[in-house]
């Protein structure tokens, strides 16, 4: 392997090849504690597309697998090292190459932090919608690889909806350009959307052309408290049916509410469930949307509804939602799941999670993006107890089972990675799995990229 | 081949297997006069997914290629027969299986006519956005295969943006289910968006789950006339930069205006270019959008700007835009192109087309979806003159060249088919072509589906 290391040093410079295990340990895994991870041969941090190509060619020749990663904020183990691999970190490729306000697009390298892009385009009155919870440290490359979502999705879609084109280094080191700079285009297969969400299994994304939107109006915020989960679920369905598209619609269950109340030392005056909604339509249109949501919540039996156009107050209310995970940390380690169910099934998912919590004898809080049915039931366990870890893992799997039973999917935005591989096979079935393997084989015949993640090769 | 015909009759019933060449002639080609087409062995009209599977298995065993098609409204020759093939027509599979207003989705068979789906969901206060010009007779299956667009795209995107999941019969007759019923989901590769726009080269779509939107407000309409093409182009760029998202923004050049004035016997009071915009935001928000567009047009030097909230008047103005092709027919046969350029390049495209028109010595009208840069320069020629046909074809190709030079794509919404195969290779380059061939090979190793369309196999 010494000759490979020498080649890597030639390719990216000696300082950008890390082999000290004390240093490389930080690049062994992402934020998902359940997923297995190995020890890499080396961690390389290329600074350009050409350097990525050289790294890929060297590893391909040596038959050493490559695990691409960004900041490592993922929650599926898709960026986890396998033993003896090269971890290819894109964080040094962090240039915002271009912002073109007249065509509402940006060209970026993969290492750009989501928040940095948001800030850069905001100066031009523009908006890059995808906003995963880790937006202040996750990178666009990771967002692309996982097709990341966030709070914005109910109105603005997920990452794939904002991508016009990609530059990807393939397994033979060749550079593929997909898509275009225009907002429409149907020349050939939609390779752009095939690579988005492929979790580093098909190539290394080295550049992306992203579609931007006009900056929305300042949001107005509404919070509604419900005495029963069913009432909150009915309100969500009714908002969808009424044709209102809020810019944010989040739900917190009883356990999440209690944790946040304890953490923030506040009284949310909520019983079984809290709905938090925003409209960024602005002015009369925004008021019309919030009034419609308020009426729906009251009709569904909300015990309290409060709406405000005050920005600071809106931020405070949103802070309660964002505090759920830190609040749960006061009880122990958390393991967050990620299922997406039809929007009519949210109440059933929450009550099902209450049953799972009781059976697992573990605290389980449900928080999620109610507007699109993407829920994050989060199990709390004692990380020092092997028994609790086992029960947490059991609960994690039962939640996936419940999601599928309700007509949903095993992952709404976190991805499959190394933690839901068997569940992917279950969701997509043998024909779906065969097609996945055929596409992987077609693009990466030697299984160079992220081997064993998402699915096992043929 | 008699044994194959017998098998097909067993599969779909004798009445659904057409072999009389007088009858099958109607299924030999789509609406693009330039594309080559052959004579099919048979035309089959299956009535169910199971029947499609039986047809695919029979043809695969006999090594007879299959060309899938819907209504045949396409403009790229992607549905054109090759000699000795089986044309698989999906128009009999025209059930709207389900409309679910609470989850804002519909499940349909491929033969449903676009307009019929629009009407069915409108009863529930819902909206299926994709609206190609042929919406009153084209089918959803064809829309999916070509990733069809229309006038709605500037605000609502193209077909792929409205698809949640598909059911596809693969080359071995197996049934693949892609996607889901939820609005978010990242379980595995995005096979749904790979099949959308694949022009029948990877499988036969037999069912689709489509995302619906709330029915928009009644549109307000604005028309602006410009003395120079540059001024109209500047207005489009400025609308984009100002962050206004109209629900429709169409442009007509001098030649298109003159043709429509002659056809409708009206005076559009326009010089070099006409912009037609709508806002469906409703009420104050709609007025705010149109006021912003009006100001932009005046600043850009519009000679006339007229806005109306009157629905009938708006429809009349839109009718002028929709009349361009019939109006051109008064001069001769038309050959419509389909390039998409960055929105800042529209004026350059139009002036470039004026040069091409002069060189080709043929009338050339430019009409298009200015809001997304998707332009349809349309050449008029005498169909009885071989020389004019040759010059029309020459102009068609020069327009594609110009589109690429301006940083655009060779097709914004019509597709590649049998008419732009060489241009696709030019746009995506050798690496892109190799990836296309690898995916085709992975999913359709015997080149069963639509052979020779979009690109030549490896």
Automatic annotation (TrEMBL), chains A, B:
Residues 36-215 form the FAD-binding PCMH-type domain. InterPro entries: FAD-bd_oxidored_4_C (IPR004113), FAD-bd_PCMH (IPR016166), FAD-bd_PCMH-like_sf (IPR036318), FAD-bd_PCMH_sub2 (IPR016169), FAD-linked_Oxase-like_C (IPR016164), FAD-linked_OxidoTrans_Type4 (IPR051914), Oxid_FAD_bind_N (IPR006094), Vanillyl_alc_oxidase_C-sub2 (IPR016171). It comes from the Bacteria. SUPFAM superfamilies: FAD-binding/transporter-associated domain-like, FAD-linked oxidases, C-terminal domain. Its cofactor is FAD. GO terms for molecular function: FAD binding; oxidoreductase activity. Gene3D superfamilies: 3.30.465.10, 3.30.70.2740, Vanillyl-alcohol Oxidase, Chain A, domain 4. Keywords: FAD, Flavoprotein, Oxidoreductase. The keyword DNA damage does not apply. PROSITE patterns: FAD_PCMH. Belongs to the FAD-binding oxidoreductase/transferase type 4 family. This is Glycolate oxidase. It comes from Saccharothrix coeruleofusca. The gene is dld.
């Amino acid at each position: 392997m010494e000759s490979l290391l020498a080649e890597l040093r030639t390719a990216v410079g000696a300082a950008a090849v890390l082999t000290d295990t004390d240093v490389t340990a930080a690049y062994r895994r992402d934020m998902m504690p359940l997923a297995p991870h190995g020890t890499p041969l080396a961690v390389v941090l290329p600074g350009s597309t050409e350097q990525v190509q050289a790294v890929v060619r060297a590893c391909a020749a040596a038959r050493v697998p490559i695990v691409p990663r960004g900041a490592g904020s993922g929650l599926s183990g898709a960026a986890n090292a396998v033993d003896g691999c090269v971890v290819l970190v894109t964080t040094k490729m962090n240039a915002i190459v271009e912002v073109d306000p007249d065509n509402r697009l940006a060209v970026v390298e993969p290492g750009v932090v989501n928040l940095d892009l948001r800030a850069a385009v905001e100066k031009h009155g523009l908006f890059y919608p995808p906003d995963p919870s880790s937006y202040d440290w996750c990178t666009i490359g990771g967002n692309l690889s996982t097709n990341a979502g966030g709070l914005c999705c109910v109105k603005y879609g997920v990452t794939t909806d904002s991508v016009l084109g990609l530059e990807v280094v393939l397994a033979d080191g060749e550079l593929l350009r997909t898509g275009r700079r225009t907002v429409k285009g149907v020349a050939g297969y939609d390779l752009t959307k095939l690579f988005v969400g492929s979790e580093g299994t098909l190539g290394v994304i080295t550049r992306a052309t992203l579609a931007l939107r006009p900056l929305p109006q300042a949001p107005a915020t509404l919070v509604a408290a419900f005495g029963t989960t069913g009432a909150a679920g009915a309100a969500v369905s009714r908002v969808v049916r009424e044709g209102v598209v809020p810019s944010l619609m989040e739900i917190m269950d009883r356990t999440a509410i209690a944790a946040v109340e304890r953490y923030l030392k506040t009284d949310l005056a909520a019983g079984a469930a809290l709905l938090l909604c925003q409209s960024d339509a602005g002015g009369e249109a925004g008021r019309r949307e919030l009034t419609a949501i308020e009426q729906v919540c009251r009709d569904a039996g909300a015990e309290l509804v409060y709406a405000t156009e005050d920005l600071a107050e809106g931020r405070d209310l949103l802070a309660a939602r964002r505090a759920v995970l830190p609040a749960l940390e006061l009880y122990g380690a958390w393991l967050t799941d990620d299922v997406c169910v039809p929007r009519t099934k949210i109440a059933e998912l929450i009550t099902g999670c209450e049953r799972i919590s009781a059976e697992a004898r573990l605290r389980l809080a449900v928080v999620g993006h109610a507007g699109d049915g993407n829920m994050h039931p989060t199990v709390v366990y004692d990380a020092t107890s092997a028994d609790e870890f086992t029960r947490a893992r059991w609960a994690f799997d039962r939640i996936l089972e419940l999601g599928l039973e309700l007509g949903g999917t095993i992952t709404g935005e976190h991805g499959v990675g190394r933690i839901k591989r068997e569940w992917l096979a279950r969701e997509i079935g043998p024909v779906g799995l065969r097609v996945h393997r055929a596409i992987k084989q077609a693009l990466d015949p030697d299984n160079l990229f992220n081997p064993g993640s998402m699915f096992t090769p043929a």
